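Box 3.1 A note on notation
Throughout this textbook, protein chains are presented in two layers. The first layer is the amino acid sequence; the second is a token string describing backbone geometry. Keep the layers aligned when reading.
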Amino acid sequence: MTSTTPTRTPATAPAQGPPSPPVPVRHGIRAGWIMMASGWSANQFSALLGAYRSELGLSESAVTGLFALYVVGLIPGLLVGGPLADRVGRRPVALTALALNLASTLILMCGAASTLLLWPGRFLTGVSAGALLAAGSAWIKELSSPPYVSPSTPTTTASRRSGLYVSAGFATGGLAAALIAQWSPHPMVTAYVPHVLLAAAAGLAAWACPETMGPAAPAAAGSRTTAEPAATAVGRRSARRNGWAQPTTAGATNQKHQVTHKFGRTVIPLAPWVFAAPATGFVTLPALVHGNVIYAGVASAVVPGTGLLVQPLARRLAKTHRLATAVAALLTMTVALAAAALSVAAEQKGATLASAAALGAGYGFALTYGLTETTALAPPRQLARRTAHFWTAAYTGMLTPYAFTLLTHSGGPLTPPALLALLSALAAVTCGILLTLNRSS
């Protein structure tokens, strides 16, 4: 009888699908709170301008000068903070700037006892906010891009996130400060307490977020064996999308000139309007209709708040044409400034507030366009620097209320309604210039 040896079938492991990708830590959202602290620090003071006039007896030129001093400090903060973040990293510059931002608020709180301290406090607010905007915008953009998020995340999300947090800080900081100043004891001190708490909490939230530049940054999925910074990996993809390649040494200068030229004709014409419009809405217009502290606080919330509300529409417009969001911004500002001229002439507070809200919508369109276009144009190793250039040009618009006060109090022929009408015409002209410079786009 023949015995049959059974054939052994090799054991097979149970079938398994591809491993589930790890859920990424939402570093971009955690770091975003530092940008909210920056926006809050800027606008909490704006809502208190009327209180400084009535409580501390400061003149109109003094309070608008203090408002403008923020921009004087902000510009060097941006111009130094951007290149420094490209050189030493986003994280150390952003967190140091946040600490200075908190210190500046503590100095402003001491200004209730000595008004002289308001000047260095406001200047330091500008310097720290500038460095925070430059380094923080680049850091959050990179933390909101692969490998820190899913590769399927829309690229526009990363570009817009820092602007959304800044706008949220603008909207809530001014209103909170105004409400506290109206009903709290020692308003020139207690109105600043929320920012101290927010800045401290934002620092704790961002502390665990990683650096995105240099050898410590993780490599993007599918990159070369040698670890490369995440910003570089993301930048290569952005380069392919936007038509510039990683330059050789010989071509670096030519590429830089090309980016600078395109930045100059697509971003710079619009940039000053990014903050000229909201500053007019929540600083100039309330003063022209003699609004109280609460009215000013509501305006400081409504203006940037409307900018947040138009973000879905801004995204849809951006899909139709590159310049659609910019054109919408300038045309909205044109109409809003013309309406403000009429409402101020008639001393209609309700209509003036509606005009301020429309200026906020223009601000939302302009900020979305400016940040998206800047991050699309900037090579990864120049992202913080180019972002600083955008914020610098944008914040020159914050000088508008100071210029408005000088022109209308100089005894010249320009009345406030006439100057608002002139600004309306200037916004329309800027729109025409932007379209002319980018006819081939």
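The chain has 18 helices and no strands. The first helix runs from residue 27 to 46.
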